[in-house]
Amino acid sequence: MRKHTDFIRNQSRKHTEWFSKSLPMIASENIISPLAREMMLSDFQDKYAEGTVGNRYYEGNRYVDNVERRVKKLTRDIFGVNYADVRPLSGTNANQAVLMAFGGPNKKITAPDVSDGAHISSAKFGSVGFRGMEPKTYPFDVDEMNLDIEGTKNLLRKEKPDIALFGRSVFLFPPPLDELKDVFEEVGCNVWYDGAHVLGLIAAGKFQKPMDEGVDILTGSTHKTLPGPQKGVVLANPASEEEKERLSAGVFPGVLSNHHMHSVAALGITLAEQKKFGEEYAEQIVKNAKALGQALYERGIDVLCEHKGFTESHTLAVDVQEHGGGGTLAEALEEANIIANKNLMPWDDVESAKEPSGLRFGSQALTRLGMKEGHMDEVAELIKKVVVDKEDPKSVKRDVEELRKNFQNIHFCFSKGERTYGHTELLKTTE
Ligand SMILES: Cc1ncc(COP(=O)(O)O)c(C=O)c1O
């Protein structure tokens, strides 16, 4: 049996080593802080805490209650809402909870299309479909990489949905909520914003203030631009006790039983760090994304929306059709230790998911490692060597490793002794 444990621990160590020499650029990932990581290893992991604070189905939750109460308060304060549920296990799970509370086979929902950058949980073949619903999708303006405002107004008026869902996984620009606000009122729909990707930016008051722009419910993942543990949240300003109870029951017993207290504790640490460092971090994330967009563009790479400064978030969408396609290039970049992903572009259909036109890059993890605008030029040059010049990825990898040597510490968090990236010191094994 020992050989299995050694094998798994060694794989984990190798992963840590690999990533400590790589450029992490997947827009949905980040690096947890040392103090938050400590909570992921705590004994809270062993606990069942079904129910709500002070009203649990099992005993032994004295300290668990203290933690969850504090984390909920931190969440309410940071997002300026009076209702926060920190139990969902992921962004998808948070979305399922909202669908449990307000969706159903006799309900109508409108949402962005998957090929326009929406997440699979909002699709017929994802959580929305699982709840017996088929989304009607908003028309999209490819030049603006945003919703077509008049078309969206018309769709909302025609469909009169119970739920109007916004938010995307290729989320370059805020949806035009202000322009749609009157129609929301006219139609009387529940406005739901999936802020999974931009939750850290929203927490810092950047990108968009959904709760000031007519949104009723905000969900999100806590591990993308918010650099926390893998979890999800449901945030709202419920109009009544009944609505609050529906939201709570949507999470438990709706879509989970136990909610993994170690990650609730880790989220609390992330939020405390967010309070202190979040604004500066969010600003740098967006500056870096824009700088990377410019640097790639200057090197002949077709980054979308040059006329709009490429992005207002952490994400860049890049059309690489002429250079060989997103699937092929994402693999070549991985060979060079540049970790990014292939992505559908609005003109691709879902069948081309294996070799879509696009690549997606995120700046949030590089920023977390201390990179600034000036370093984006170096990153762009390395990407160009693979994508445009077709240099051997193995030789580019050496340059990537050289660059990454200077960026080993995690920034925008409280320090804890000598701990830096990853957890290699915990994983010394016999290999
Ligand atoms: C818009 C959007 N919603 C939800 C999710 C799902 O989040 P999770 O992976 O935490 O379930 C994602 C994931 O990338 C996303 O992009």
Describe this protein's structure:
The protein is built from 14 helices and 17 strands. With 431 residues, the chain is α/β, with parallel strands linked by helices. It has 2 domains: 235 residues, Type I PLP-dependent aspartate aminotransferase-like (Major domain) (Aspartate Aminotransferase, domain 2); 149 residues, Aspartate Aminotransferase, domain 1. Strands 4-12-11-10-9-5-6 form a 7-stranded mixed beta sheet, sandwiched between helices. Strands 13-14-17-16 form a 4-stranded antiparallel beta sheet. Helix 4 crosses helix 9. The two termini are 15 Å apart. The C terminus is likely disordered. The structure holds pyridoxal-5'-phosphate (PLP). The site of pyridoxal-5'-phosphate has 15 residues, from helix 4. Pyridoxal-5'-phosphate binds next to helix 4.
CATH top level label of the largest domain = Alpha Beta
Mean pLDDT: 95
Number of domains: 2
Overall body shape: globular
End-to-end distance: 15 Å
- Ligands bound, unique: pyridoxal-5'-phosphate
Brief summary of the model shown:
The protein is α/β, with parallel strands linked by helices and 431 residues long. It contains 14 helices and 17 strands.
